[in-house]
Write a structure and sequence with these properties.
This protein has helices at residues 36-50, 75-85, 98-106, 129-140, 174-187, 207-213, 227-233, 248-261, 302-313, 334-343, 355-363, 378-385, 391-394; strands at residues 15-19, 54-58, 89-91, 112-114, 145-148, 170-172, 194-198, 219-222, 264-266, 270-274, 284-287, 296-300, 317-321, 349-352, 373-374. The protein is built from 13 helices and 15 strands. The chain is 33% helix and 15% strand. It has a six-stranded parallel sheet. Strands 9-8-7-13-14-15 form a six-stranded parallel sheet, with helices on both faces. By secondary structure, the chain is α/β, with parallel strands linked by helices. The longest helix has 15 residues, at 36-50. It is elongated. Helix 1 (36-50) crosses helix 2 and helix 7 packs across helix 8.
Length: 397
């Protein structure tokens, strides 16, 4: 069992360092285009503030490679966090420097501050344990207690995720608890029928998930760019579609393994193709086993969308990770939309597995509340479902 906030005792007057996942997408003018991760982080921050804690939020944005970069500043996040909390959030212009120290010392009970991007510091992601721990000690000097609530980073052995928990009294926040509870339901006691829908570009990204879930699910639906490796494994031409030639034998093994275990491995029967990867490329629907040369598949076809939706709609447990096509282009978004819509109609547990899937449902106009759970951690969710240990959780056990 992992420790929770309840195990920390009285928090009034204590400085609580909260590791949140605020890694939101920004446009060219540094405007937030999807605040889902900020919203998901609110309940823990609000709970701590209401308990009278002095809340210091630490988070990352993008990959600034260990040095300050204005393009990756968390300043826009501080503004949005203030709006959502309905109270001012002080922004420290560094993470462990003079400004952060001053902000931490001035905080009053119930107030919230956000530190600048933790990845502006090379110690955060260093592979050297000593360098990482030295930076974690600087973070620990700012606070009395640590709460880990950034599920999207618990699979990383990083200073603000792992090492800090060895230095301060620590616990998981509500978001991490909720994510773990959902993932346990997906792996240990799924209500049936249990349908897993996998998309995205590469089979190689999903090998561990397929390995771990192929004997747990009742049906495994494959879409997205990864489907063409499966179609090639069946001997079909895939034109100029994305293809991992080195994974064809792996795809064949999965097809055979699913048949042997009585798991339905469902591939599209039709594909939306175009001559090039472009939003305005002319789209044509073809049979999945008759894709023409010179055309690339960019979405599952309408019949496949209906079939996938029926599997999803009639399931009691659904896990979906990876879009069915290039949802960013309207002509190739129908497959992803069909799956998302069916997920909103599930009479049971419906889980959107973070990353591109979460971005897709929001981009297509769906609300978070229409789904049972939208994960904030694509990579962390996948590693959990692969059966891997997550350092940021293990250290809190």
């Amino acid at each position: 069992m992992v420790r929770t906030i309840d195990d920390l005792g009285e928090l009034r007057g204590k400085r609580v360092l909260v590791r949140s996942d605020l890694n939101v997408p920004l446009d060219d003018e540094n405007n937030i285009t999807d605040d889902g991760r900020i919203r998901a982080s609110l309940p823990t921050i609000q709970r701590l503030a209401q308990a009278g804690a002095r809340v210091l939020v630490v988070a990352h944005l993008g990959r600034p490679e260990g040095e300050p970069n204005p393009a990756y500043s968390l300043a826009p996040v501080a503004g949005r966090l203030s709006e959502l909390l309905g109270s001012d959030v002080t922004f420290a212009t560094d993470t462990v420097g003079e400004d952060a120290q001053g902000v931490a010392n001035r905080l009053q009970d119930g107030e919230v501050a956000l530190l600048e991007n933790v990845r502006f510091n090379p110690g955060e992601t260093s592979k050297d344990d000593a360098i990482r721990k030295a930076f974690a000690e600087q973070l620990a000097n700012l606070a009395d207690v640590f709460v880990s609530d950034g599920f999207g980073v618990v699979h990383r052995k990083q200073a603000s995720v792992y090492d800090i928990a060895t230095l301060l009294p620590s616990a998981t926040g509500g978001l991490v608890q909720a994510e773990v509870e959902v993932l346990e339901r997906l792996t240990e006691s799924p209500e049936r029928p249990y349908v897993v829908v996998l998309g995205g570009s590469k089979v190689s990204d999903k090998l561990g998930v397929i390995d771990n879930l192929i004997d747990k699910a009742d049906a495994l639906l494959i879409g997205g760019g990864m489907v063409f490796t499966f179609l090639a494994a069946q001997g079909h031409n895939v034109g100029t579609s994305l293809l991992e030639a080195d994974q064809i034998d792996v795809a064949k093994r999965y097809i055979d393994e699913a048949a042997a275990k009585g798991v339905e491995l469902v591939l599209p029967t039709d594909i939306v193709v175009a001559p090039e990867f472009s939003a305005d490329a002319p789209a044509t629907v073809v049979a999945a086993d008759a894709m023409p040369d010179g055309q690339m598949g960019l979405d599952i076809g309408p019949e496949s969308g209906k079939a996938f939706a029926e599997y999803v709609r009639t399931a009691k447990t659904v896990f979906w990770n990876g879009p069915m096509g290039v949802f960013e282009f309207a002509a190739f978004a129908a497959g992803t939309k069909a799956v998302a819509e069916a997920l909103t109609e599930v009479d049971g547990l419906s889980v959107v597995g973070g990353g591109d899937s979460a971005a897709a449902v929001r981009a297509l106009g769906f609300k978070d509340a229409q789904f049972g759970h939208i994960s904030t951690g694509g990579g962390a969710s996948l590693e959990y479902l692969e059966g891997k240990s997550l350092p940021g959780l293990e250290i809190l056990s």
